[in-house]
Structure formats: structure tokens, C-alpha cells
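TL;DR need C-alpha cells for one chain.
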Amino acid sequence: MVQLPETFETRMQRLLGAEFPNFQQAFEQEPPVSIRVNKQKYKQPISLPTVPWTDSGYYLSERPSFTLDPLLHAGAYYVQEASSMFLEQALKQTINLENPLQVLDLCGAPGGKSTHLASLISKDSLLVSNEVIKSRASILAENIAKWGSGNVLVTNNDPRDFSRLPNFFDVMVIDAPCSGEGMFRKDPQAINEWSEENVILCARRQQRILSDVWESLKPGGLLIYSTCTWNEAENEQNMNWLAEQENAQPIKLDIDQAWGIVRSEILGVEGYRFYPHAMQGEGFFLAVMRKAGEPEENYSSGKRKKYKLQEAGKKEKALVQDWLINSEDHKWLQHNETIFTLPESIFEAADEVYQKLYVIYGGTQVAEVAGKKVKPLQQLALSQLLNADEFVTAELDMEQALRYLRKEDINLGNSGTNWVFFTYKNIPLGWAKQIGNRINNYFPKEWRIRMDLPAELPEKSVLK
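>> reply
TL;DR here they are.
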């Protein structure tokens, strides 16, 4: 039997009553494994059990070696805990996702909720995905690039920096750093690190985060707040505190009783709790609050004379504009030798973010241009906007794909001088340059698979 902290057990007995033995028993079971599919890339039927509160989540019967699945590296799916996919219900039930929105994922790394948000919002919406820790922000940018949406900016800022963008966001998602009680089964080390003192410290830090960013949420805007913990101090009590401090209004969601999600309510603030004995997932809490005031139109500063983002030159643009589908709908931009694009519809708001925050990645990175020489970038290969018809394509089998992802050379058995576009199961993986009989592997060094390939490779991908 897993040894849980005594004070934690006492509190959970109070919260769960007669269900506590079942809750305790759940810690002896293996955590479920779930993925969320990028249906803009993988459009084939999927014969896996579904996560009921999302249209793109699926359960696996066991945990495979995800590193050895090329489709993961291609951004065809994301490995994500099922409970946190409930974010989809919070959005669909509270806002019209077909409208152009400005959305903030404040604590974005490693990218689960950000890639989910990117799949849910319209192409005319802007998602700002932030991470305060620099090393984690780089991982977030990598996962955003692999997902390939093209209307996302990745920032590396402290929450207080967002006060520079007052009344800017329609939706704010805060998956707050917490004491991690919901991870006890998945990460036994979390048990050793837990204490009542840390719970109090986390609750205070969460309040500080909420205070720091609240000004950047529009009047009438939505806050979706979540944690992977169960204590009231970090959950319902913090939402009560926000209601008192800012006159925020709680919003109730409809949930199917069969899902096993538990409603909780303290002083009128309703939250949604996920317990491992009641549903297939780990510990999670979510609540939705609306900022007081009337909703405003999307941010628009009007045409400014000076932008931080610089347009690409006509000659440079002409070299690469056919590489994107619907390229006329995009603003073609250049920073040093890198050409990238943003949807025309979000350019004004995106430029404001570039002016006020530290952006480490944005839009669709297309190419590096030096004179008449053009090198397509890995981010373009993984973009949902790529016009693959412009390139020579080579389909790889499992072993070839994994060796490519290890940054090994791939022999195609022919010759030429073209950029070659590698795919696996017809889903893009990245670039190589053919020079005669030799192939130069252009997969990013920092993204490569570092593990040695086993003697027996998986027979198929997770999805096929």
C-alpha cells in the first residue's frame, strides 16, 4: 500500500467520506495513458477508446516507448493526461470559439494545454503561450512548432510583465504551479516533497500570480484556472479570494454524470474535481471565472506608423511565398536572415505583444535567406500551412524515420541537388538536402533522438 502523508489522508477522508477506501486503492493501480491527436495533421479514423470530454483524446492500453514513434516527433499527437483535457469543455461551454479571440496560456510549458488551445481556437485568433523558466520555454517553443498552428507566440516572461498589456486577452488559462497532490500516483517523489507548509506557500503564490495578470484580462473576459491538486486552499478558496478581491463571477459548467467528475462548491464558487478512483485520469481541479464588466471588442490600436515587426523584402518574399498555402492571408516578416509569417488578421495584436513582452518564437518560421540561397526551416516542415506540392517528397519506413530523427544519414538510392521533404505515414518529418548521391540531414540537432535504437523496433506507430 502506498504510504500517503498522514495530514493529507485525514483531509481526503473528510472530503471523500465513504469513497476514501476506493480513492486509496487507486494508488495501487497503474496510471492510465492518454494522448491527444492533432487532427489537422492526422485525419485517418482512430480505433482507440476515447476520452469522453474531448473530441481528440484517446486512451492507450499501455505506455509505449513514445520516443520511438516518428508520429510523436511529427506533431501528429501529444502525450497528455486525460483529466487536463477537460479544458475543452470549459472553453466550448463558455465562449464562441469561431470568433477571433486573444488567448493567454500563462504557465504554458511543456505545451499540453497550449497545443490543445491552438486546436480549439479559430485561425483568426491569437494564442500567447508563456513560460517564466527559460529552459522550459525552449521546450514549449519546440512543442508549439511541432504542432504547427501558425497563430501562436511563445513568450518568456514573469506574470507581472503582462500588466503592460491591459485589457488585452479575451481568455486567460492559468494552470497554476501547485503542491502536486494529483500526481502522487504518477510521481511517487511528489509524496516526499509534499507538506502542509508547501500547500500554504503554493496558495499564496497562486494568489500573487492571479493578481499580477488580472489587469491584462478584458472586462467580461474568462479565466480558466486549474491545478493538479485537491486541497481547497489552492482551489476553491483561491477562487473565493478572487471573487472577493476582483468581483469575479463564477461560471457553472454542464457535466455528464457518467464522466465521474465531482462538482464542488464553496460560497457559490463551483469547481470540478477529478479523482483517480472515479474516472480514468490523474488528480485535477478546474474552475471558470468571469471578470466583472462588459465584454469589449478585440484589441486594436489602429494603423501605427511604426511596428516592431519588419516586413520581408519583395525579393526575399518571392523566393518562398509559394511554400505556404493561402500565403496571401499572411504577413511576411523578416528578422535578420529568418523569414516568418503571421496571419494578417492577428498582426496588429501580435506586434503589440512583441513590443511589450519577450517573444522567443512566433508564427510560422519559413526559411533562412542569404542572397539568392534559401534554406527551408524545420518549423515550416511541421507547419499545418506547408504547401508540400512545392517540394520533392520521400516517404520513410519506421527504421529510416528513426535514423533520420537521430540525425543519421539516409541513403535514398538516387542522386540530385534538391531539398528533400521526408514523411512518415504521409505526415511531414523534416528536411534533407540531396547533393549527388549523398543526403545531408537537416533535422535540428537539439531535437534529435538521443537514445540508441533497440535491436527490435516497434512494428507500428501508436496511431497506426
